[in-house]
Every structure is written in C-alpha cells, then in structure tokens.
Amino acid sequence: MEEKPASYERVVYKNTSEYHYMKICLVCENRSKTLSPEQFKQLIISGVKDLYGEVGAAFPFDLLTFDQSALSAILRVYNRGLVKLWSALTLIGEYEDEPCAFRVTQVSPFLLALSGNSRELELY
Amino acid sequence: MVRLKARYLLCEVCVSDSSSLQLLEERGIYQAVRAAVVKAHGEYGAARFSIGSSVAYVNAYTGVVMLRFRKVHYQLLWSALPFITSIWSQGKKVQCFFNCIHVGGTIRTCQKFLVRYGRQQLCRMLPHCKTEAEKQEVRRAVLSCSLQKFNVDDEGDDDEGSEEEET
Amino acid sequence: MSVYMDLNIIAISDKKRLQNIIETAAHLGYSTVAINYVVEPQQKKQQIPKPLSASELCEKLPIVQGKSRPIKVLNRLTVVATEASHFRPSSEYKNFDILAVYPKTEKLFHAACMTYDVDIISIATTEKQPFYCKRSPVNGAIERGVFFEISYTAAIRDSTMKKYTIANAINLVDVCKGKNVILTSGVENPLELRGPYDIANLGLVFGLSEGDAKAAVSTNCRSVILHGETRMTALGIIHMMMKKKKSQPPIEQPEEETPAVKRAKTETL
Question: Region Disordered: what ranges (chain C) (predicted)?
Fold first, then answer.
C-alpha cells in the first residue's frame, strides 16, 4: 500500500471562542522586583479602574498562570472586554511609584497558540 | 455642514425635603454628574464627558434638570446618572437621586414632553389635596393650562406657568 | 505584511538612554523610528539643532525583532508655533527627514492645514485643545496629504493627561473620520514605549476603526515618510544630488527616487 503524502489540514471553527487569551510580561526598571500573583492582579485591576472606572474594574478576567521570576502571565478575558483590558494594560505606567511597562507578547482566542511564539524565532 | 447630534436627558431631581430644591444650580449639578461619571467610567468616561456635555436647563422649583450629551456616547454617560447620591450646591450638600423621565433629540421635543408631564402631575396631585383651597388652586391650574392647549404658539409660557403652580 | 513605525522619539541629550530607547523599539518590532527635535521659537535664541546621523548615534543599529534588517533611524523636526512668524521655511529644515508643526492657536492650525509645507500636525495631549478642529481645514490637510499626530506618552505618565489625550484624540478622530491619523509615542524613557499592537489597540479606544488603527502605526507612517521625501525632492520624481568626480566639475544628476507604485500613492493623498 502506497503511503499518502503529508498534507495540511485546515481547521475552521464555526463558532469562535468565547475568550481571548493574552500572554503578558511586566517589565520594571528595578529588575529584582517580585510580586505575588495577588499583587499582580491587583495592579492590573487598578489600571483598569483608573481608565474605565468601577464599571470597567467589575469586568471579570482570570489570571491563569503567573511566573514569579519572569513576571510573565497568561490572562483569560471575555472577547467583549479584550479591548478595554488591553488598552488599560497599555496605559499602566508605574507600579509603586516606579516606572514599569506591560509587554503584550501574544493575544489569541486559543490557549494552545500561546505555547509557541513566532516573534521570538531568530531569523537570519 | 454636518450636524452634531445631541441627546437631551430630562431628569427629575428627587429630594426628601422639597425646600432644598431651591439650592440647585447649574454648576453644582454639572460637577455632581462629572464626579459620578469619573467614578463609574474612569478617565475614559471623563474624556467622553468633557466633549460636548452641558447642563441645558435647571428648574429649581420643580427640580427638573435637562442634561445635554453627545449622541455617540450618551448611553455611557447616562449609565452613571443612577449613582449620583448628593449634589454640592451653594456650600450645602443636598441628598438626592436622579430620575430620568425623558430622552429627546431636541430641546423642543423635551419642552413639549415637559408641558405634558407637568399637566399630568397636576391631575395626579388633585386627589392628594387636603384642604378645599388647595383643591381649588390645582383645579384652576389644570384649567388654565388646558385652555392654553389650543394656543400652540404660547407653549413656552405655558410650560413655565404650569411648573410653578405645581409646587 | 506591514512594517510598524514610531515617528516620535524625543531627542534627549543622554545618548546612552537614546540608544536604549532605540534598542527597545527594535525589540518591540518597530522597523523605523524618528528622532524628534523640538524647537520652541518663542523662547529666545533657540537654534534649530543639527540632527545626529544614525551612525553617530549607535555604531551598530539593533536588528528589528522578527526581521533580519537593522532598524532605520530618521530625523524629525517639530516646530512649536504660537505665532505666525515662528514657522519659517529655511535651509535648516532641509536637514530633517520629517517636518512637523504643533500649532497652539486656531489661526495657526488653519494655516498649518492649508498652506504650511509640513508632513505632520501635532495635536495637544498635555492640555485641553484650546480650539476646536474645524472640518474644513482638516479636510484640506487630508487632501494635501498632511497627517495628524497623537502621541500617547503623556497618557501613560499622568492620570489627568490621560483624560486630555483621550478627549482630544476622540475629537480629532471624529472630525477627520479616522483618516490621516498617526499614533506615535513621544518617549523619553524606554519604559514608556509600547508595542505596535498595543498602540493599534489603543487606537480603538480613540474611536478609530480596526483598519484605521492599524494603519495609524503602519501605512500612514509610511505615507508621512514618503511625503517628507516629496518635500525634499521634486514631488518625489526627481532628486538632485551632487556627483563627486575629480575630472569633471560637479554635475547635477537627475535620479529616479521612488518607484512608480509608491509615487502613485503619495500623489493620490
């Protein structure tokens, strides 16, 4: 029996995901800064509250994973709140009077997509 | 020229003590609304509020306030109105809440509504009157504005008249 | 695949920090950055600075993430104009790739939109816009291919500035219907810089559509650079440059500067 040549399979989702997943990373001026997951989430919530008030802060999002050493995390948020959460992350400029920045590495409706990052591939 | 559409929100300021209504003024109301918007919607709401929002009309006798918002974001700003609990006016704190009674596209439609609303209020007041003199007064007011109903041009005056007699 | 650009990095005297900013920009995926020299003519005796060339700035330009090319560094001049006399086209302006003006009054805004030979008109982000952007000058500017700039750093620094930035941006986007807007940073500190996708998302908050928001960090910026080129060359078609040869006296040699496709784009703007 002849072996079939490798072929690509195209998967199309009819109903898109309810959530979006974001892989983010916090960069601080002070490299040795450590945060507990609670503090990390509180920082994000206060950022959202600053920009969108209590209505925005009430919107649920989840901190799925948090890497304390790299200060990177994966967030899960409903599609509706993605723009709000993301723009609030963009405009967070300081934590405890120290400049910091959120770097959004990846955003995807599928959690699996966050396992690899094409942007970190070195192309030469 | 493109018209910038606005929405006018007719709100009733409800207070426990009707004499404190006299304290109402434009500035105090504007600041109370802005504070509520900032609290509910943050800096984004404040930015939206700073574009084309104003207090168009205040009636200190009946406690009717007309707020003007841009059409594009009036729903966002409207959602903050229920959270107003007090207004600082003339150095005094007035405990109150806002009850939105009408949303209109122009000042004219709001005025028409207000006239009709005032008339209804008069009719509703009638059974609550205790003394005969009060009853007579309300009856007279109802009659005066029903007669003016045919006089379409004078609706503006009619509005003022009926409102004041309601108090 | 579009390339992302950030056309406003404030030129600071601290060279090391500037290098650090450029490295961060390359890391975030910006292919082109512009170093912004701001002059305020109302302060007396302020000279138009000489721009540093990219090679003077860093010996080796950092490689853009996800690409194999080094980052491109341009120079930009911003004139803060409070009076009509402040904007005077002179030969010193020719040293810069991009020319921007920040008008402080309505009259100057009108003039900047309709007549000034600039590429970018900056919009206030640290204060409430003191005048209302009228539709007719804005349309004139769009017709001439001049772009409006919103810089977001002020919004990151301070809470009240956030309000002003958003309000002014919404106003502007309303008037120009999302066309001819670019989003830039205006950073002085590497931690104030944000990635291009973040900024495209921020554009959505300012009322841009998804397509316009992405264009505001990519294709619109490209148009600005091309517009800057047309200012220096004869409509981008002919570019004069001196040819250095020992035997012959210097001849002016016409040279085709931009390919036909790019030219068509700038002309239609």
Answer: 245-269
Which CATH number covers residue B74?
A: 3.30.70.3250
| pTM for this model (two decimals) | 0.77
Look-up of token digits 């918002």: B69
Of C163, C174, C205, the CB nearest to B50: C163
Name the residue facing C66 among A92, A107, A119 (closest C-beta). Answer: A119
| Residues 56-115 in C contacting A (C-alpha not used; CB under 8 Å) | 65-68
Looking at the partner chain, which of B37, B40, B44 has a beta carbon nearest the beta carbon of A51?
B44
Q: Spell out the per-residue pLDDT of chain C, length 269, in tens.
A: 578 888 888 887 777 888 888 888 888 888 888 888 888 776 665 666 777 776 666 667 777 776 777 788 888 888 888 777 767 766 667 777 888 888 888 888 888 888 877 888 888 888 787 777 778 888 888 888 888 888 888 888 888 888 888 888 888 888 888 888 888 888 888 888 888 888 889 888 888 888 888 888 888 888 888 888 887 766 666 766 667 666 555 444 444 444 444 444 444 44
Read off the pLDDT of residues C13-45 as tens digits, 9 standing for 90 and up: 777 888 888 888 888 888 888 888 888 776 665
Domains within chain A, CATH numbers bracketed:
25-112 (3.30.70.3250)
| CA gap A100, A97 in Å, rounded | 9
For C39, residues 6+ apart whose C-beta sits below 8 A from its C-beta are C46, C47, C48, C49, C77, C78, C79, C80
Interface of A with B in 61-120 (CB under 8 A): none
Chain A residues near residue B43 by CB distance under 8 angstroms: 50-51
Chain C residues close to B35, C-beta within 8 Å: none
Nearest to B5 by CA among B58, B63, B69: B69
On chain A, the residues whose CB falls within 8 A of the CB of B39 are: 53-54
CA distances from A101 to A20, C125, C217 (A): 21, 20, 19
Q: What is the span of the domain harbouring residue C129?
A: 5-232
Please determine, for the modelled complex, whether the ipTM score is greater than 0.85. no
CA distance B40 to chain A (A): 5
